[in-house]
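Case study 2.
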Amino acid sequence: MKSEANACEVWIDEKEQWLNSMEIPEKLEDLEVVQHRFESLEPEMNSQASRVAVVNQIARQLMHSGHPSEKEIKAQQDKLNTRWSQFRDLVDQKKDSLNSALGVQNYHLECNETKSWIKEKTKVIESTQELGNDLAGVMALQRKLTGMERDLAAIEDKLGDLGKEADRLATEHPEQSDAIKGRLAEIRGVWDEMKDTMKNREESLGEASKLQQFLRELDDFQSWLSRTQTAIASEDMPNTLAEAEKLLTQHEGIKNEIRNYEEDYQKMRDMGEMVTQGQTDAQYMFLRQRLQALDTGWNELHKMWENRQNLLSQSHAYQLFLRDTKQAEAFLNNQEYVLAHTEMPTTLEGAEAAIKKQEDFMTTLDANEEKISGVVDTGRRLVADGNINAERIQEKVDSIDQRHKKNRAAASDLLMRLKDNRDLQKFLQDCQELSLWINEKMLTAQDMSYDEARNLHSKWLKHQAFMAELQSNKEWLDKIQKDGQTLMSEKPETEVMVKEKLASLKTMWDDLESTTQTKAKCLFDANKAELFTQSCADLDKWLGCLDGQLTSDDYGKDLTSVNILLKKQQILESQVDVRQKEVEELQGQSQALSQEGKGSEEVDGQRISVEKKFNCLQAPLQKRRENLMASREIHQFNRDVEDEILWVEERMALATSTDHGNNLQTVQLLIKKNQTLQKEIQGHQPRYDDIFDRSQHILREDGPSAQLIRQRLAGLQSLWEQIRKETEKRHARLSEAHEAQQYYFDAAEAEAWMSEQELYMMSEEKAKDEQSSVAMLKKHQILEQAVEDYADTVHLLSGTSRGLVGAEHPDSERIGMRQSQVDKLYAGLKDLSEERRGKLDERLRLFQLNREVDDLEQWIAEREVVAGSHELGQDYEHVTMLQERFREFARDTGNIGQERVDAVNRQADELINTGHGDAATIAEWKDGLNEAWADLLELIDTRTQILAASFELHKFYHDAKEILNRILDKHKKLPEELGRDQNTVETLQRMHTTFEHDIQAVGTQVRQLQEDAVRLQSAYAGDKADDIQKREGEVLEAWKNLLEAAEGRRVKLVETADKFRFFSMVRDLMLWMEDVIRLIEAQEKPRDVSSVELLMNNHQGIKAEIDARNDSFTSCIELGKALLARKHYAAGEIKEKLLQLTDKRKDMIDKWEDRWEWLRLVLEVHQFSRDAGVAEAWLLGQEPYLSSREMGQNVDEVEKLIKRHEAFEKSAATWEERFSALERLTTMELLEVRRSQEEEERRRQPPPTEALSTEAAVQHREGELVSQNGLPSDQESPRENVEGGEVVNGVSEPSPAGSPGASRKVKGSQAATLPAKSQQDAPTSQLEGFLHRKHEWEGHNKKASSRSWHNVYCVINQQEMGFYKDQKSASQGIPYHSEIPVTLKDAVCEVALDYKKKKHVFKLKITDGNEYLFQAKDDEEMNTWISAISAAVPGEKPEVTPSSHSTPAPAARAQTLPASVASTTAESSPGKREKDKEKRFSLFSKKK
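Prediction:
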């Protein structure tokens, strides 16, 4: 984890260093380079982000596992995350700065482009100055400035954008605000200039500007007229009401536009007549024809508009009629369905219910009749007005009218049949009831069990009552027979059934009557007398019972009982009537018995008694009837009240019904029923009021039931109010249901319409050509628009549903579901529409592709005719013209054709890639087109190659001629003059350089000509090849001569320039050396040590100046030797100058050395004099003390004197060394001794017999000068060789006489005073510089842990090699990564031949096992370092032990001065001399 974190931090350090050191450049190219580096930084950051994430993950795992170094890990993690966050912020900051700078540069780039754009438009405006002011010129001007206004508008918008961008950039870069605003102001200035140019051009046109304006307006008006006529001439017909309304609105807009253009039309006509009046030019005639065509087009436009308006109005009316027709047909369909599904009931109750339902249906039919009649009347009116769809309208009208009449007749017929069925069912029910009654009575009449006498009379009485009952019910049969006759007369179709029923009833009734008569006769004949007596007894008994009944107080408890009592009363009255007859029959029976001889007074008395009782009962019977009638009135009132209550309760269920219908018609029917109920309640109001009026009469009598009646009346009143309220509430609920059903109806209509459109959308009909495809696409677009417009209907339904849901309608959930279905269906319809549109688009694009392919193939065929030409040209100009024309043809063909072919291929590829159904055909078309295009390109390429070959041949002839003439001309212009001095030679050199530069272009042409000749010779044969070779040879021969002449002149000029330069350098150095010699000889004689030191410092300044001139001497000498080596034409003169220079320089150096040696000796003399004077003064100061005789008077004085003497002895011991130094030999003495020794040796050796020649001496001196960088070497310096005496200041002094210690003094002073060997003889002990280092091994068998390359600053010092970061660290002694210097003892340094990855690599092996690889920049640097390291290794270089008393000279001085001079300079420089050395050079020891 730590290694990864450290690696991440190292990477962050490197990138932060780069980012911090990076400055945002100002140039766009540099910005793009920096941006590219940032783009390459992004993937590196992503990689490092993953590494940081890995480090965080490892850190979390370690901390989670309880690692001992948890705190350290946490600190490392936090540090890395902080560094990473800071680095990302730094990157974002730099990116923002870079983007901001890019924005500024892009702004400047856009400014330049806009400025160029404006200048280009200005040139276009200025180019119109050449056009004339006549009509032709104005028309040409108009064509040239067609797109100018659009371009100016675009430029103005661009200026606005630049202004906003400038404000933003000025805010972001305040330091560049002036430059940004300045660029914008500059562009605005150019823009204003262009507008001024335009304005001036318009003013300069004068009348032509008016004519130009008129022509522009005429073009615009004709363009508008053409567009408007095209729009009006559209054959699009609306298929829906929305489309019709939309087209009408658009057409009305066109009318308004025409009105707006009417004034412009009149002005244009007047202007046109004025311009063309009296003009006969062809352009004016053409303009007059355009004006006539304009008049015709204007009139036709009005006619077209009127026709289109009439057509659209009729279409709109037709669509309105179709909308109403759909609604009417929906009504008729519902009516036909109801009429077709109504069946005849088989019961009376069912018949009555069917009649009621049919009556309600008839009411709905009457309500819809007005709408249907309105549709029919509208259709007939449209037909009468001559609508374009009159036939369709007439068909619809006839169909609706016939269906409506048919439904009306069918409804009436159905109602009649239902009523007839009700009458028939009622008759059948009555017949059934009578049949049952007759059968029941027949069983009674057929009972003959009267054999016993005791029950005979009761049988007779019962039979009498049975006969009375038959007689009373005879009316029932008559009524049924009457009803049957009526039914048969009114409805003959029921005659068979009715007759059958009546005959059956008649037969049954006759059988019953005959049976009854037979039974009565049998009973009467059985026992007449007994029957009479029994009859009287029965009558008497009956009268007794009747009397009891008449005296009863029971008048009934309710209406039923009262009616029963009344019925009994009526029965009693009828019985009374029957008994009346029996009483009368008793009289007849009495007479009959009397006639038979059986009568008596008893019989008459019974009869009379019965008659008296019977007559007495008449009055009570009448009274009881009256009482019963009064009771019935009261109970009837109660019953009426009860009936009203029941009526209200019966209708209360309807009023409170929750049945709100399942469809719109049902709801409308329920609404009408509710309205009918309300009308019934209103119609029942009189009965209600009558009950209350009757109640007043009954309550006025104040009977015992008055309180009960009041309670019933209150209940009735409460129910009455309740039913009225409930009907109103039901009306409200039905209204809600009507709204919901109306929504369902509209939704169903919408679904039906969308389903109908879906059928069309799913059609598979395909177009046969492009026109039909366009027509189908337009039709589909109309349908698509209709579908889009139908969105309003869907939105309206949605709004209705939301309103109902928002109002918390009971069917909210269902309405919402239904609306979602509608929305889903509409969405599906739109999807189908888009799918259908895609198919039609594919078909249209297929036909368009076919047309494009045909047009392009025809165009390619036309171009192939031109590309197949065989004309090659007669000469260079002719073939150039042909090539230019064909190149333009090829360029136009390539640009236009390739663009068209690419467009067709893209179109074909798009169709194929989108899965077009005819992909195979498209691919075949594409391949055929591409083959034709490839053939054309091949023809063009062939033609281009042929023309190129012809062009190359003619161009070769032309170029050969031109180049030959140019070479000959250049050869003639080559001068012969070489110059008189350095300036003229340099001028001639510059001229010759210019000449050579000029002929380089000719050389390029010659080489190109050679290449062309080689290429043409390989392409041609025969005479043409020979001709090509001949012309090439002529050019090459002339070119060779020119080059030789130019090279010869260049060499002469260079040698002349070098000669004059050498002479100039020699002259300057000679003059300088004369000045230096005069300066050396003019120095004054010193008087003391300080003046000597001052003179020595000045003399050292002269030496420094001489050293500074060493490079000049070296370059001058090297130049002279080089000229001699080249065998210069002025070699003698150059050699003479060179000898003069070396002699003069040697003389100067000798004079400086002599003067310096003299100053050094004088310094020793003055130093000895000064030291001797000081010593002598000290001795004189100490002599009084030593000569004193004072020994002390007491112990203290003696002790003081002893201490003083001890101090004196210590002081004398310190002066002892100084006096010893004064006694040593001086340089003067040593030189004298050496000179005497050399003279003795010369005397013993013969003199030399050979001498160097002058030239050898010169060369020897030159070698010495060159070897010592312009100075004599140490070994051969005249100051080093002191044999034969020494010249000091021009005076030869003999060597001083030697003393017994002379040998020792000479050795000691030589070691102390002779200069050390020169710095060049000493090995190099220091080398430093940058190298790339790689640590390979850190032990004998252990590779280094880090083996990467590092750039370090290496320093070799004595036997060690140290590594530093840079030169500053080396000077401060700060090692690289705290590394200690490596020792070079027994180290091995060699070229790393086994390392192949890098070049210039050498390796260093240390004795402790470490091994390093170093890379230098080149082989020379590598060899330098290897030599330096090898020289620093002990044992491989000569041991040099410098004198212990010599002081090494500084490095800079060691390179320029002789070693003796440098040593002496270091020894005698102020502040560094030592007193003992000063004493050694003192000459005053002889005087002691």
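Residues 1267 and 1459 are 15 Å apart (CA to CA).
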